[in-house]
Amino acid sequence: MGADFASFVVLSVVLSVTPGPDTMIVLSNSVAGGTRSGIATTFGVKAGTLTHSVLAAVGVAAVLLQFAAFYTVLKLIGAAYLIGLGLYSLVKALTTRVAVVGPEGPQQRKGPWRCFVEGFLSNILNPKVIVFYVAVLPQFVAPGEPVVPATAKLASVHIGVSFVWLVLVSVFVGSAQQWLTRPSVRRAVNAISGAAIAAFGVKLALSRQ
Fold first, then answer.
1. Which of 53, 67, 71 is nearest to 136 (CA)?
2. Helices and strands per DSSP (H, E), number in the chain
3. pTM for the model
4. Cβ(190)–Cβ(33) below 8 Å
5. What whole-number distance in Å separates Cα of residue 195 and Cα of residue 45?
6. DSSP state of 107
7. Are the beta carbons of 19 and 199 closer than 8 angstroms?
8. Is 109 helix (H, G, I), strand (E, B) or coil?
9. How far is CA 147 from the centre of its chain?
10. Which of 158, 165, 167, 207 could form a disulfide with 12, with the two C-beta atoms 3.0–4.6 Å apart?
11. What is the pLDDT of residues 64-99, one digit of tens each?
Protein backbone atom coordinates (compact mmCIF):
# COMPACT_ATOMS: atom_id res chain seq x y z
CA MET A 1 0.00 0.00 0.00
CA GLY A 2 2.95 2.30 0.47
CA ALA A 3 2.10 5.97 0.76
CA ASP A 4 -1.63 5.24 0.78
CA PHE A 5 -1.22 2.98 3.79
CA ALA A 6 0.86 5.60 5.63
CA SER A 7 -1.79 8.22 4.84
CA PHE A 8 -4.47 5.93 6.22
CA VAL A 9 -2.53 5.46 9.45
CA VAL A 10 -2.27 9.23 9.85
CA LEU A 11 -5.98 9.60 9.11
CA SER A 12 -6.79 6.94 11.70
CA VAL A 13 -4.75 8.77 14.34
CA VAL A 14 -6.42 12.10 13.56
CA LEU A 15 -9.92 10.58 13.64
CA SER A 16 -9.18 8.75 16.88
CA VAL A 17 -7.94 11.78 18.85
CA THR A 18 -10.65 14.08 17.51
CA PRO A 19 -13.35 14.32 20.22
CA GLY A 20 -16.48 12.41 19.27
CA PRO A 21 -19.36 10.57 20.97
CA ASP A 22 -17.26 7.43 21.56
CA THR A 23 -14.50 9.36 23.33
CA MET A 24 -16.99 11.32 25.42
CA ILE A 25 -18.79 8.17 26.57
CA VAL A 26 -15.49 6.52 27.51
CA LEU A 27 -14.51 9.70 29.36
CA SER A 28 -17.84 9.91 31.17
CA ASN A 29 -17.79 6.26 32.28
CA SER A 30 -14.13 6.52 33.31
CA VAL A 31 -14.98 9.46 35.54
CA ALA A 32 -17.89 7.56 37.11
CA GLY A 33 -16.25 4.17 37.53
CA GLY A 34 -12.52 4.50 36.94
CA THR A 35 -10.22 2.81 34.45
CA ARG A 36 -12.11 -0.48 34.52
CA SER A 37 -15.36 1.15 33.42
CA GLY A 38 -13.56 3.15 30.72
CA ILE A 39 -11.89 0.06 29.28
CA ALA A 40 -15.16 -1.90 29.37
CA THR A 41 -16.76 0.95 27.41
CA THR A 42 -13.82 0.92 25.00
CA PHE A 43 -14.32 -2.78 24.28
CA GLY A 44 -17.97 -2.06 23.56
CA VAL A 45 -17.08 0.76 21.17
CA LYS A 46 -14.58 -1.41 19.34
CA ALA A 47 -17.05 -4.30 19.14
CA GLY A 48 -19.34 -1.90 17.31
CA THR A 49 -16.54 -0.76 15.01
CA LEU A 50 -15.60 -4.37 14.28
CA THR A 51 -19.20 -5.13 13.38
CA HIS A 52 -19.26 -2.18 10.98
CA SER A 53 -15.99 -3.29 9.37
CA VAL A 54 -17.23 -6.86 8.84
CA LEU A 55 -20.48 -5.63 7.28
CA ALA A 56 -18.48 -3.32 5.01
CA ALA A 57 -16.03 -6.05 4.00
CA VAL A 58 -18.78 -8.44 2.91
CA GLY A 59 -20.73 -5.70 1.14
CA VAL A 60 -23.77 -5.67 3.43
CA ALA A 61 -23.20 -2.10 4.62
CA ALA A 62 -22.98 -0.79 1.06
CA VAL A 63 -26.28 -2.45 0.19
CA LEU A 64 -28.00 -1.05 3.28
CA LEU A 65 -26.80 2.46 2.53
CA GLN A 66 -28.62 2.30 -0.79
CA PHE A 67 -31.85 2.59 1.17
CA ALA A 68 -32.28 6.18 2.34
CA ALA A 69 -34.94 5.12 4.83
CA PHE A 70 -32.50 2.74 6.56
CA TYR A 71 -29.91 5.47 6.94
CA THR A 72 -32.47 7.94 8.28
CA VAL A 73 -33.97 5.50 10.79
CA LEU A 74 -30.53 4.41 12.05
CA LYS A 75 -29.44 8.05 12.27
CA LEU A 76 -32.48 9.07 14.31
CA ILE A 77 -32.21 6.07 16.64
CA GLY A 78 -28.53 6.79 17.20
CA ALA A 79 -29.22 10.48 17.75
CA ALA A 80 -32.01 9.73 20.22
CA TYR A 81 -29.74 7.36 22.13
CA LEU A 82 -26.92 9.90 22.39
CA ILE A 83 -29.26 12.72 23.37
CA GLY A 84 -30.89 10.55 26.02
CA LEU A 85 -27.54 9.41 27.40
CA GLY A 86 -26.22 12.97 27.43
CA LEU A 87 -29.30 14.41 29.10
CA TYR A 88 -29.19 11.69 31.75
CA SER A 89 -25.61 12.61 32.60
CA LEU A 90 -26.45 16.32 32.53
CA VAL A 91 -29.50 15.96 34.79
CA LYS A 92 -27.50 13.76 37.16
CA ALA A 93 -24.84 16.47 37.38
CA LEU A 94 -27.39 19.19 38.07
CA THR A 95 -29.33 17.22 40.68
CA THR A 96 -26.47 15.59 42.60
CA ARG A 97 -25.97 17.24 45.95
CA VAL A 98 -22.49 18.73 46.40
CA ALA A 99 -22.53 17.68 50.04
CA VAL A 100 -21.96 14.05 49.04
CA VAL A 101 -18.28 13.32 49.60
CA GLY A 102 -16.19 10.44 48.32
CA PRO A 103 -16.46 8.13 45.34
CA GLU A 104 -19.74 6.63 44.33
CA GLY A 105 -20.65 3.50 46.16
CA PRO A 106 -20.69 0.17 44.31
CA GLN A 107 -24.48 0.34 44.03
CA GLN A 108 -24.19 3.61 42.09
CA ARG A 109 -21.49 2.50 39.68
CA LYS A 110 -22.25 1.13 36.25
CA GLY A 111 -21.22 -2.48 35.88
CA PRO A 112 -18.71 -3.49 33.16
CA TRP A 113 -21.46 -5.05 31.06
CA ARG A 114 -23.56 -1.87 31.10
CA CYS A 115 -20.49 0.15 30.13
CA PHE A 116 -19.78 -2.30 27.31
CA VAL A 117 -23.35 -2.05 26.01
CA GLU A 118 -23.30 1.76 26.14
CA GLY A 119 -20.08 1.84 24.14
CA PHE A 120 -21.39 -0.69 21.63
CA LEU A 121 -24.69 1.13 21.08
CA SER A 122 -22.92 4.49 20.75
CA ASN A 123 -20.87 3.12 17.87
CA ILE A 124 -23.19 0.66 16.15
CA LEU A 125 -26.04 3.22 15.96
CA ASN A 126 -23.81 5.85 14.34
CA PRO A 127 -24.34 5.70 10.55
CA LYS A 128 -21.30 7.95 10.08
CA VAL A 129 -19.14 4.95 10.95
CA ILE A 130 -20.84 2.93 8.20
CA VAL A 131 -20.17 5.71 5.71
CA PHE A 132 -16.50 5.79 6.75
CA TYR A 133 -16.03 2.09 6.10
CA VAL A 134 -18.03 2.07 2.88
CA ALA A 135 -16.96 5.36 1.27
CA VAL A 136 -13.62 6.39 2.79
CA LEU A 137 -11.75 3.20 3.60
CA PRO A 138 -11.97 1.68 0.06
CA GLN A 139 -10.14 4.72 -1.32
CA PHE A 140 -6.97 3.43 0.35
CA VAL A 141 -7.17 0.00 -1.30
CA ALA A 142 -4.63 -0.22 -4.12
CA PRO A 143 -5.96 -1.08 -7.60
CA GLY A 144 -5.86 -4.81 -8.23
CA GLU A 145 -5.46 -5.65 -4.55
CA PRO A 146 -7.93 -8.21 -3.12
CA VAL A 147 -10.69 -6.12 -1.57
CA VAL A 148 -11.60 -8.21 1.47
CA PRO A 149 -8.03 -8.79 2.79
CA ALA A 150 -7.08 -5.18 2.11
CA THR A 151 -10.21 -3.88 3.81
CA ALA A 152 -9.60 -6.15 6.79
CA LYS A 153 -6.03 -4.85 7.10
CA LEU A 154 -7.10 -1.21 6.99
CA ALA A 155 -9.96 -1.84 9.41
CA SER A 156 -7.62 -3.54 11.87
CA VAL A 157 -5.33 -0.50 11.76
CA HIS A 158 -8.19 1.90 12.43
CA ILE A 159 -9.62 -0.26 15.21
CA GLY A 160 -6.18 -0.76 16.77
CA VAL A 161 -5.26 2.93 16.75
CA SER A 162 -8.61 4.05 18.17
CA PHE A 163 -8.53 1.26 20.76
CA VAL A 164 -5.13 2.40 22.04
CA TRP A 165 -6.34 5.99 22.22
CA LEU A 166 -9.49 5.13 24.18
CA VAL A 167 -7.53 2.92 26.57
CA LEU A 168 -5.12 5.80 27.18
CA VAL A 169 -8.09 8.06 27.93
CA SER A 170 -9.44 5.45 30.36
CA VAL A 171 -6.11 5.01 32.12
CA PHE A 172 -5.44 8.76 32.35
CA VAL A 173 -8.86 9.53 33.77
CA GLY A 174 -8.71 6.50 36.06
CA SER A 175 -5.35 7.62 37.46
CA ALA A 176 -6.92 10.95 38.36
CA GLN A 177 -9.86 9.24 40.05
CA GLN A 178 -9.04 10.62 43.51
CA TRP A 179 -9.27 14.17 42.21
CA LEU A 180 -12.23 13.44 39.95
CA THR A 181 -14.28 11.95 42.77
CA ARG A 182 -14.56 15.35 44.40
CA PRO A 183 -18.28 16.19 44.17
CA SER A 184 -17.80 19.59 42.52
CA VAL A 185 -15.34 18.20 39.96
CA ARG A 186 -17.54 15.21 39.19
CA ARG A 187 -20.57 17.41 38.68
CA ALA A 188 -18.63 19.64 36.30
CA VAL A 189 -17.27 16.72 34.28
CA ASN A 190 -20.67 15.01 34.13
CA ALA A 191 -22.27 18.27 33.00
CA ILE A 192 -19.66 18.93 30.31
CA SER A 193 -19.56 15.35 29.00
CA GLY A 194 -23.35 15.05 29.13
CA ALA A 195 -23.83 18.28 27.21
CA ALA A 196 -21.20 17.19 24.67
CA ILE A 197 -22.79 13.75 24.13
CA ALA A 198 -26.24 15.32 23.71
CA ALA A 199 -24.77 17.87 21.29
CA PHE A 200 -23.26 15.06 19.20
CA GLY A 201 -26.71 13.47 19.13
CA VAL A 202 -28.33 16.68 17.90
CA LYS A 203 -25.59 17.12 15.30
CA LEU A 204 -26.15 13.55 14.09
CA ALA A 205 -29.93 14.06 13.87
CA LEU A 206 -29.49 17.21 11.77
CA SER A 207 -26.77 15.80 9.54
CA ARG A 208 -27.23 14.64 5.97
CA GLN A 209 -25.78 11.49 4.44
1. 53
2. 10, 0
3. 0.78
4. no
5. 20
6. G
7. no
8. coil
9. 26
10. 158
11. 666 667 777 777 887 888 888 888 778 877 776 544
